[in-house]
Write a structure and sequence with these properties.
About 35% of the residues lie in helices and about 20% in strands. The protein contains twelve helices and 14 strands. The chain is globular, with a radius of gyration of 21 Å. The two termini are about 15 Å apart. The mean pLDDT is about 95.
Amino acid sequence: MAIWVVSDGRAGIENQALGLAEAVQRLTPAEVTIKHIRWRPIFDRLPSALKTPAMLASAPPVAPWPDLWIATGRATLPLSTRVKAWSGGKTFVVQTQDPRWANDRYDLIVAPAHDGLSGDNVFEITGSPHRITPQRIAEAAPAFADRIAPLPHPRIAVLIGGKSKAFDLTEAHAADLADQIADAVRASGGALMLTFSRRTPDAAKAVMTARLSDLPGWIWDGTGENPLFGFLHFADHILVTEDSANMAAEAASTGKPVHVLPMIPLKSGDKFARLHDDLQSRGATRPFDGALDGWTYDSLAETDRAARAVLEAMRTR
């Protein structure tokens, strides 16, 4: 099977489509090709309905068309809605996230359940598709073993997000979170493994690093290979800020206790509240209360479940 992964190239967007493609590839022989869609700046903000391939900043995709087109993000919509016609009906079109435009023109929409999307072609999952699997984590872990394996248990992985449309991470709030995390790590006698996201404000990053740097462990400063998979593999507990659906769902795929750190809301958090209610109902997460209690649950494998749905839909179309 030929699969195209289509996005604007941003890692957080691309990884959703790529994660789903890799999950399909684990179920059936397939070749995955990544395609980036970028519009010339003068046309970028046009409504999707008005965009044509001539407006692209690079050469448009052309035949031979894939068997499966998996796309994510607004930039891909003008092509996702047309590729079936271009391919003469050969290409099965999957769009992840809520397209919010022409939703009836995709063969399948793999959408986060917290978006509340409905329709005959909608397949809901908890969170978003991602690339993290137990096997990928285990394969990546040895590269970080020399630095992490000597650390005392419990090892606490902390994944910090940042400012978004729905949440903020001010310097003061970051300092407060750092103090709570430090108290928990010290009380446990364990070690800290912390990584920031690209959205973490510099001031928040600086104050958290200053307040946590005396703890045993590793605060990744962005240099060298990202140790996220190593952190997830070796962690006994995972702390994750509530602002990222991706981080929470990815952490819940490990089967390890996931503690959710509060952020400062900037607007109604109904979508995120639904996501975190879903994760809590499945036993994966609990709000962080300063304690590092352990619990067990069935690790989430939502990307694999979506991949099975894609193949089933392709067989029955």
